[in-house]
């Protein structure tokens, strides 16, 4: 029994019949008899007193070392100071450890769901006010210790709920290779800046493809590591099962360097309990420009999906068979359960994502952003109306699924485990499997405004994560590697990057990195699928 029964209870704060009303909201109308009602009201008063007591306690946080790493010139860029439309959330300068080696001299930007002490965070929305953390995310601390110079935070999509680049309340991000076309999402700003050559590395987050999709669209190398290899402490989450953070760069070597810098166990994040100790990985030192004796599988279901553009399919197929010239064996393989991936991810992400957005996420140990929770507060009609349709849709879907299918999440996760086990069995025979990252190249951005059709807002993003989202549920490491260009369906004269997704077994990042480096060293992707009159230099607004 709570010790708070020894103190006066604030029973007056609990209206009569509150327990009955709470139960009625879940369809229980005869759960409490009249004689019991007063007791349950008193018990509610007790737990409310406990809640008020906990809220009054000082918070526990990992304070940022601002003295060692001061934040200089924090500014929200004006339109004139922006790149690729609205790629920057905030510009600033934090100089990294001068004795750091892995990322010394590298410029790094951060997706705007990664906390930086003293820098306001938007999370792609204006439905709630921007909030400012007093802590640095673990990946920020590690990047600075490795010598990185962090130059800003970059636009992410609305609550990270889109793979397009026009949903952020802070503005639209354009593809660095073609103005007016999508940079992908939700790590939209960082991918555009890296793909355009303005920043060396972006640290992004991926819960359905949000590192790999924009990397594919923007001609970047983007890695979603094994679930738990890179800490998520200090990064806004929609669901801990899907949470992945990782590097985006223009080449494989920089991805490996960044992965060494930011990966490893974090005592605050229970996702990382199976990860190696921080500083113990050797992804960069262990790089080999060789796939000799590799056995590579071309996943039939990843190529043959009805949404895959024929030119994208052929470009990735040609890139995959190029591994044979490097000494690998390449074979077509089938895993029919791959086709269930979008359905499994949709149910899992909608239910868990809704709980996260509503402040009901639970079941994990960690350090959490109480600044974000204070800014978010309970949803109101006014704040909900300001959300982009993709985020509104997540909440509406999640509430409906929880109401009408209360046992569905459990079965969904069982099937997810079946798919994970099936992939792991495949990786007993194959070193990596490959497929197109996205089924088509970057579509054009749309100009959506409040009051426009929700379906029109969502349609350009439909199907983009056909091959990516399932690996968030299974936790497998997956990389997008640029392998050429293909024409836009909307404008045949516009050529846009094509990404090949390379997937490995759990904790097998080294195989992915080695295969990607071997392909990268042997091929100039910018000359594949281009014409003599197509310039290979990124467009800059």
UniProtKB/TrEMBL annotation:
Ranges of residues in domain Amidase: 93-513
Record field: transmembrane: none
Gene3D superfamilies from the UniProt entry: Amidase signature (AS) domain (3.90.1300.10)
Superkingdom: Eukaryota
InterPro entries attached to this UniProt entry: Amidase, Amidase_dom, AS_sf
Gene Ontology MF terms in the entry: catalytic activity
Pfam families membership: Amidase
Cross-referenced PANTHER family: AMIDASE (PTHR11895:SF170), TRANSAMIDASE (PTHR11895)
Protein name, as recorded: Amidase signature enzyme
Organism: Paraphaeosphaeria sporulosa
Phylogenetic classification of the source organism: Eukaryota, Fungi, Dikarya, Ascomycota, Pezizomycotina
């Amino acid at each position: 029994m709570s010790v708070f029964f020894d103190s006066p209870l604030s029973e007056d704060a609990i209206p009569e019949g509150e327990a009955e009303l709470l139960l009625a909201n879940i369809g229980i109308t005869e759960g409490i008899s009249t004689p019991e009602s007063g007791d349950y009201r008193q018990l509610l008063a007790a737990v409310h007193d406990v809640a008020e007591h906990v809220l009054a306690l000082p918070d526990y946080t990992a304070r940022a070392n601002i003295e060692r790493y001061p934040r200089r010139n924090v500014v929200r860029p004006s339109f004139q100071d922006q790149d690729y439309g609205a790629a920057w959330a905030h510009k600033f300068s934090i100089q990294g450890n001068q004795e750091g080696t892995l990322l010394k001299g590298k410029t790094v930007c951060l997706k705007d769901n990664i906390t930086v002490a003293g820098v306001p965070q938007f999370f792609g929305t204006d439905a709630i006010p921007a909030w400012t953390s007093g802590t640095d995310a673990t990946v920020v601390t590690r990047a600075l210790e490795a010598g990185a110079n962090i130059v800003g935070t970059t636009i992410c999509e609305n609550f990270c709920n889109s793979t397009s680049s026009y949903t952020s309340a802070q503005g639209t991000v354009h593809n660095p290779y073609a103005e007016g076309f999508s940079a992908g999402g939700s790590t939209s700003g960082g991918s555009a800046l890296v793909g355009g050559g303005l920043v060396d590395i972006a640290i992004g987050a991926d819960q359905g493809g949000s590192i790999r999709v924009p990397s594919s669209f923007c001609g970047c190398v983007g890695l979603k590591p094994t679930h738990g290899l890179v800490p998520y402490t200090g990064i806004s989450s929609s669901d801990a099962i899907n949470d992945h953070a990782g590097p985006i760069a223009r080449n494989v070597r920089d991805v490996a360097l960044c992965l060494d810098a930011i990966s490893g166990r974090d005592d605050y994040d229970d996702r990382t309990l199976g990860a190696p100790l921080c500083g113990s990985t050797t992804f960069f030192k262990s790089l080999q420009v060789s796939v000799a004796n590799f056995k590579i599988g071309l996943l039939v279901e990843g190529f043959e999906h009805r949404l895959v553009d024929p030119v994208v399919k052929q470009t990735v197929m040609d890139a995959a068979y190029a591994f044979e010239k490097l000494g690998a064996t390449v074979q077509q393989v089938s895993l029919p359960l791959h086709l269930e991936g979008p359905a499994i991810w949709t149910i899992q992400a909608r239910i868990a994502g809704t709980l996260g957005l509503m402040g009901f996420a639970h079941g994990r140990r960690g350090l959490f952003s109480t600044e974000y929770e204070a800014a978010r507060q309970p949803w109101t009609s006014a704040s909900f109306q300001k959300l982009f349709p993709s985020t509104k849709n997540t909440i509406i879907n999640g509430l409906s699924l929880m109401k009408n299918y209360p046992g569905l999440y459990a079965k969904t996760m069982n099937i997810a485990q079946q798919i994970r086990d099936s992939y792991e069995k495949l990786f007993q025979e194959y070193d990596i499997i490959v497929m197109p990252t996205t089924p088509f190249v970057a579509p054009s951005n749309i100009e959506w405004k409040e009051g426009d059709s929700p379906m029109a807002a969502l349609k350009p993003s439909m199907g983009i994560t056909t091959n990516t989202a399932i690996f968030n549920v299974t936790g497998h490491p997956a990389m997008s590697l640029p392998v050429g260009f293909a024409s836009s369906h909307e404008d045949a004269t516009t050529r846009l990057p094509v990404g090949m997704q390379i997937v490995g077994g759990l904790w097998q990042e080294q195989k992915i990195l080695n295969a990607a480096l071997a392909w990268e060293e042997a091929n100039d992707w910018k000359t594949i699928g281009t014409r003599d009159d197509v310039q290979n230099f990124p467009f800059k607004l």
